[in-house]
Amino acid sequence: MADNRSSEGFGRQLDEHAIDAGAAEPERAAGLVDSGVYVDGVRRASPGGLADTYRCLQQLDGAMAWIGLRGPSRAQIVSLAAEFRLPELAVEDAINAHQRPKLERYDDTLFVVLRAARYLDAREAVEFAELHLFLGPGFVITVRHGGAPDLAAVRRRLEADPGVLGLGPEAVLYAVLDRVVDGYAPVVAGLENDIDEVETEVFGGDPNASRRIYQLSREVIQFQRAARPLLKVVEALTDGFERYGTDEELRRRLRDVADHLIQVVERVDGFRHLLQSILTVNATLVSQAQNEEMRSLTAASFEQNEEVKRVSAWAAILFAPTLIGTVYGMNFTHMPELGWRYGYLFAVALMLAVCGALYLLFKRRGWL
Hints:
Elements: H1 4-18, H2 24-30, E1 32-39, E2 42-45, H3 50-59, E3 63-70, H4 74-84, H5 88-96, E4 102-106, E5 109-120, E6 125-136, E7 139-145, H6 151-159, H7 162-165, H8 169-182, H9 184-203, H10 209-239, H11 241-244, H12 248-328, H13 343-364
Parallel strand pairs: 3-7
Antiparallel strand pairs: 1-2, 1-3, 4-5, 5-6, 6-7
């Protein structure tokens, strides 16, 4: 068993090795974000690579390694699987990603999948990321696929509280779980603000409101798929309190996480129902607007028809004397009534009679 001085000396050697660009930097660039080795909640070493972490664990009794990866290579996952005897199915899930939140136990190894979310103000959209955790005796491995959450802040917070970090891998799990659930709060606030805006757009008659409602509905459904399955994860951890002898402080922290998660799930469920109601109202308003437009078009068509009737009626009335005048203006030599003394009066009377008859006919039919 190594004493404290030898442990600190080994840690200093690994720290010096970590800042050597020869070996550590390529692996960090490939996906290793941070690797720390802890004894009783205190960081004793900061290895620069996976091989250094393995050696450090062998030389420090009672140590726990916390290895943080982001978008790791397959070779790194395979190396960790061989070193810590990770279950094959869980390893494949970590490599392929695109998993729903879940918790699976493989003997003394725990595999947890979380879906983190963050609200992007500039795009007014929700971005999702996937987080996998492997926990076992003396190790915690976090594998991130995506940008959120910032586990460096979680690590700093735990390192500032050695009493909690000294409780082991479960302390890291609960801290990460708490960070993921706390990250849901800004998303809920952002979605709520977007829903308020889309309500204003709906009642303002914005033609793009329907598309915005569908986009929000899709984001809310994705958020539900991230948050709701997490309730079963928390429930499974709670059920294992007595069986695995979970520390009372960790139990308290998990209960607090569960309370926050239930609030998030309830609000997101409310968002989905609210968006369905908004969509129904929008459809009703659009239908009413279309009906009003059809009524306006119908009224305009009716007025146009009335005008056409009046114009046609007057055209017919004026056509009659024109026809008669045209007939009598042909100037043929042998034409009836041309030599008649009362021919002119007869023609004028005929014009007036035809025009009067047509006027009375159109008036009776409502054309004039």
